[in-house]
Amino acid sequence: MRDNDGDPLLLGQRVVAILETGLRTATYKLATLMALIDHSIENVPANPDDVLDIPIPALAHRVLEIYWLQVRPFEGQILSQKTGAPNATIPNAARRLRAEAQVGTSRVPIDVAISRVPQAYERVIDEISLCLAGEPLRRLQRFGGSAESDPFLYDDAFLQKPSSSAKRVRGYSIELKPGVAHGLARLAGLLKPALEIMWVDDVRRMNRFLHAEVPDVAGHLFGRERAALERVREPFKDAFGPHCFYCSTHLPTGNPIDHVLPWSLVGIDGLANLVLACARCNGDKSNALPAVPIIDQLLDRDPGVLEQIASEIGWPTQRDRVVAAAVGIYRMQPAGVPTWSGYKQTTRLDIAFPPSWE
Ligand SMILES: [Zn+2]
């Protein structure tokens, strides 16, 4: 018997309910849930009823990756992510890693920091793992002010005795209950935007200087600024030609860089997920899921060429992640769902599993 009766809608309602009850004093619960969703998409089990084991350090990595962009100063100020505590543990750890890796305030993916300062990264993962095991994971499944946990996502009994040993926590994992990983991955397109809205509200509440007229908080927190990807434009034009990936039109200078797997869904900035696009295709595609032949074409690009660019500009390809996320996303879609297949064109999804992507 599955706890959520195999019903993704029920699962989604319960997830939203744990966030809507009670005042959130930190963004950690939101981060933990987002990390659970992200991990589920890239590791979705073949059988919908299967459990999914998530080592706590792997979850800590996902949480760190979310805060990685958020901790950059906004309008010259550090955003608080916890009521009355500008230096909360997790954002602070992310800021320290940025400083040690000397990446400044750039949007460079976290992989760059991992390769530059691997030991600092391991320390930060230990610290975040301890923090997650101590609070957000232990309390996530309590509704409102309830002292009782209602473990519908994972069994949290072993977390109820907090550990202060990073070494022990390194060995911990949580096991998502049957159907949960599948359900979270399937609901990602609905849940993630809802979590983002709650997150922006919380950050506004926790940072009084963010008045209504202050510009794009959501864009800052969730990395929607376009300019940040500009450094891949010229190398891509040299390698693949100055043409739109989707419609082959000749590109002017300053054309958009597009995330093929939507950024809003999987947040992968690696070269393997990026293409040059014309403004027309880029605007029309927006956050839509691309048609399967577009993914075929994306993954057909020579990995060696991408690796070459990666080493020249110091930006990872993340090709394995793109493949894993694509498999996860498309496995979740019901047959016949509309996908974007070009400017003002829609194709009903038709995909055979396993797909030929590798
Ligand atoms: Zn185009």
From TrEMBL:
Pfam families associated with the record: HNH_4
* Recorded GO MF terms: endonuclease activity
Q: Which domain of life is it from?
A: Bacteria
HNH nuclease domain spans which residues?
231-283
| Keyword presence, ATP-binding | no
Q: Tell me the SMART domains matching this sequence.
A: HNHc
Keywords for this entry? Answer: Endonuclease, Hydrolase, Nuclease
Provide the protein name: HNH endonuclease domain-containing protein
Native source species: [Mycobacterium] crassicus
Q: What is the lineage of its organism?
A: Bacteria, Bacillati, Actinomycetota, Actinomycetes, Mycobacteriales
